[in-house]
């Protein structure tokens, strides 16, 4: 099965492929650890990281709350700058707009810098279908394109490949054997791409931030390819999600502090380009014609939804992927959508309003909260995963066996007498499988657990069984409470009753 | 002053020794725990899986059990973390919502209560072993319990506290996740147990029995003789043997 065509497969099936791929797991682990350490160091060096996060969050909350206003402002300003601004409700609309431009320009080739939105649209295939040659110019994207795969990480598309695999791919393209030496491999791609930049009719970019006050777009990159894409070809098309907006350049200061540090642990990427319209007469380079396509594709569904609106705050740094202990073991393709990791597990279902079509990706999380902790704009992804699960259950789409199990759980746990009886029954039943206080059987429901562990048995006497005697013993030898402590406890209770927030 | 024990279903049914250690240790500071027997489970398994109606059925026993308590203490950051979700769980019911808010404010994870309310950072324990500590995700990230256990452990005499590599990474338990996504969970617990072994500690200590059951189960499956303990248990044993 090709990794790029996994429709109809299950999360478990896709994860299994990854779990059995030692190359992938080693490569993903190596790079996510490096990025995670880099982020930790960069945020420590900067200092006051929590305050920066909160500022970033506030800017994003404000912008998304007033998205209609800022989108309008952005579009008006960009048009004044001479940009053709298009709004696309759906992926199909965005593809149609792009193809129309390509056809009008009679384009033979498009050179692209990194853009996750174009991945969401499957734009490369669409362009190729009308005979346009498409070349990815970001090194990682180029590798993925050669391999016929999709990105497995938001910012490191080829994270799942090691340099030996990459050398094999590039050797095929070069027609000679290239050594697995990073400098030599990058040198080959650099030379190859130079030709592509010069012959391309259209340059296509994504957009990290769109600045409403001036109608400008900002790109962060390390390879200089986005700068080539946005200066050499005579036509530029930029694709952006409708939530990429920030109000002003002063807000960019905060975002430029958060994004590179969170993504790669850099203080700033090697290049940060601000582009305000096509080439003017006095400019040395730049496109003669510039288009910005603003994509909705399910994003506006989140507006006004108190549980999911914050999803639009995401700045696509990938820090949640690098922090995620599940992503580390299964990589990005197991998520089955364009966006992977914790953000992908939430975004992919949320963008699709048809709950019947959601797969089980939201279940592939332990809810450990590492994503939330890593997020530079504090999106509570771990809570959103629970809301997605709940929406499925409420729609009657929960797993059948699980639904029955949960009804049983509720029946037992809603009443302590029933719970105590269940413990008694459990203790009798477990006699069949317990040996030396442990259960090692892999039968039935125990299989998943006991394939990797042994299970403990229920205690001979539960705590509640023991409490009567224990309490008497304890009361007998009870020490005097320190008056200072009891005063403090009384004060805590008084504060709480006076409407205090409590201890958190 | 009514200080109540929320035993949590896993410690009640599987690890009663944790509740005993907590009760006997707190008695040394003049705190006589009260144990309302109508409590069952916080409802987390249902809540996290999206079955909120079922979670509410279970959570109501907790709201009722601790209604007239002044302080509620549990040997689990995860179950106390669940109580922090109660206001959201009961947001459509004004009466239960008020009770949920009240319970949230008075609920404490065991080390939070010991350090921040009783003001104890040295229980006078001696525990001459090499120990490593796994900070469970919900306790450390959701409740922010990070310093409290460290303070208590640093003051245990004779104990060598060895840092656990990649300590903050989840152990892979995740409730129903361990069964539903058992192979991913298995890969995660294998890695966590590898790190425990790498630390060369004799004892693994933590604050949440669910995570510890997961890691201990894996170590046992691999026949690795590492002792796995809740911190309440370690401190109590250390005091008794001091």
Automatic annotation (TrEMBL), chain A:
Entry keyword Membrane: no
InterPro entries: 4Fe4S_Fe-S-bd (IPR017896), 4Fe4S_Fe_S_CS (IPR017900), FTHF_cligase-like_sf (IPR024185), Helical_ferredxn (IPR009051), LUD_dom (IPR003741), LutB/LldF (IPR004452), LutB_C (IPR024569), NagB/RpiA_transferase-like (IPR037171)
Keywords from the named record: 4Fe-4S, Electron transport, Iron, Iron-sulfur, Metal-binding, Repeat, Transport
Pfam families from the UniProt entry: Fer4_8, LUD_dom, LutB_C
Top-rank lineage group of the source organism: Bacteria
Keyword Transmembrane found: no
Record domain 4Fe-4S ferredoxin-type: where: 304-335
Cited NCBIfam families: LutB/LldF family L-lactate oxidation iron-sulfur protein
Protein name in the entry: L-lactate dehydrogenase complex protein LldF
Automatic annotation (TrEMBL), chain B:
Residues spanning the membrane: none
Cysteine-rich domain span: 3-83, 131-215
Pfam families xref list: CCG
Name the UniProt record assigns to this protein: L-lactate dehydrogenase complex protein LldE
Organism, scientific name: Paenibacillus macquariensis
């Amino acid at each position: 099965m090709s990794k790029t065509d996994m429709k109809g497969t299950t999360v478990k099936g896709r994860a299994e492929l990854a779990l059995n791929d030692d190359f992938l797991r080693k490569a993903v682990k190596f790079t996510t650890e490096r990025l995670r350490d880099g982020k930790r160091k960069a945020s420590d060096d900067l200092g006051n990281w929590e305050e920066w996060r909160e500022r970033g969050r506030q800017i994003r909350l404000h912008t998304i709350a007033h998205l209609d206003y800022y989108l309008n402002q952005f579009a008006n300003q960009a048009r004044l700058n001479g940009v053709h601004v298009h709004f696309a409700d759906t992926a199909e609309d965005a593809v149609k707009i792009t193809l129309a431009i390509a056809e009008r320009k009679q384009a033979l080739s498009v050179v692209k810098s990194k853009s996750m939105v174009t991945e969401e649209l499957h734009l490369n295939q669409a362009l190729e279908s009308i005979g346009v040659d498409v070349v990815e110019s970001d090194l990682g994207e180029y590798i993925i394109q050669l391999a016929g795969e999709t990105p497995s990480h938001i910012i490191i598309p080829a994270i799942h490949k090691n340099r030996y695999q990459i050398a094999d791919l590039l050797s095929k393209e070069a027609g000679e054997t290239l050594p697995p030496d990073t400098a030599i491999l990058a040198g080959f791609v650099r030379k190859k791409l130079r030709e592509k930049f010069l012959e391309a009719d259209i340059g296509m970019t994504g957009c990290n931030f769109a600045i409403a006050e001036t109608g400008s777009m900002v790109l962060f990159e390390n390879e200089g390819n986005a700068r080539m894409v946005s200066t050499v070809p005579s036509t530029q098309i930029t694709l952006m999600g409708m939530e990429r907006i920030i109000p002003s350049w002063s807000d960019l200061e905060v975002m430029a502090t958060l994004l590179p540090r969170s993504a790669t642990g850099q203080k700033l990427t090697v290049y940060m380009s601000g582009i305000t319209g096509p080439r003017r007469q006095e400019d040395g380079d730049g496109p003669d014609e510039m288009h910005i396509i603003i994509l909705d594709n399910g994003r506006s569904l989140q507006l006004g939804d108190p549980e999911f609106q914050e999803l639009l705050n995401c700045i696509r740094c990938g820090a949640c992927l690098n922090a995620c202990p599940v992503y580390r073991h299964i990589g990005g393709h197991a998520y089955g959508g364009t966006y992977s990791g914790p953000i992908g597990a939430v975004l992919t279902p949320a963008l699709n309003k048809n709950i019947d079509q959601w797969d089980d990706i939201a279940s592939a999380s332990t809810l450990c909260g590492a994503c939330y902790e890593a997020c530079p704009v504090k999106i509570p992804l771990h809570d959103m995963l629970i809301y997605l699960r709940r929406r499925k259950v409420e729609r009657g789409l929960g797993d059948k066996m699980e639904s029955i199990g949960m009804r049983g759980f509720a029946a037992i746990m809603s009443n302590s007498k029933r719970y105590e009886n269940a413990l008694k029954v459990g203790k009798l039943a477990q006699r069949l499988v317990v040996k030396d206080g442990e259960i090692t059987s892999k039968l039935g429901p125990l299989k998943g657990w006991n394939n990797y562990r042994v299970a403990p048995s229920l205690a001979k006497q539960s705590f509640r069984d023991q409490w009567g005697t224990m309490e008497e013993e304890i009361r007998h030898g009870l020490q005097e409470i320190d008056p200072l402590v009891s005063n403090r406890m009384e004060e805590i209770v008084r504060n709480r009753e006076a409407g205090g927030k409590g201890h958190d | 002053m009514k200080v109540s024990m929320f035993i949590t279903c896993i410690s009640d049914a599987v690890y009663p020794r944790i509740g005993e250690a907590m009760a006997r240790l707190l008695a040394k500071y003049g705190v006589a725990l009260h144990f309302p027997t109508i409590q069952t489970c916080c409802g987390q398994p249902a809540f996290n899986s999206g079955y909120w109606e079922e979670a509410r059925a279970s959570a109501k026993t907790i709201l009722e059990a601790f209604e007239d308590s002044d302080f509620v203490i549990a040997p689990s950051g995860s179950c106390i973390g669940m109580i922090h979700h109660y206001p959201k769980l009961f947001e459509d019911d004004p009466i239960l919502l008020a009770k949920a808010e009240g319970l949230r404010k008075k609920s404490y994870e065991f080390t939070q209560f010991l350090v921040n309310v009783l003001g104890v950072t040295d229980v006078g324990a001696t525990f001459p072993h090499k120990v490593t500590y796994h900070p469970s995700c919900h306790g450390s990230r959701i409740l922010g319990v990070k310093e409290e256990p460290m303070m208590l452990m640093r003051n245990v005499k004779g104990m060598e506290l060895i840092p656990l590599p990649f300590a903050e990474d989840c152990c892979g338990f995740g409730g129903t996740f361990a069964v539903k996504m058992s192979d991913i969970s298995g890969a995660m617990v294998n890695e966590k147990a590898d790190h425990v072994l790498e630390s060369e500690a004799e004892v693994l200590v933590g604050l949440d029995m669910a995570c510890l059951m997961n890691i201990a189960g894996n170590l046992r499956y691999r026949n690795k003789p590492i002792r796995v303990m809740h911190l309440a248990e370690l401190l109590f044993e250390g005091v008794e043997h001091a």
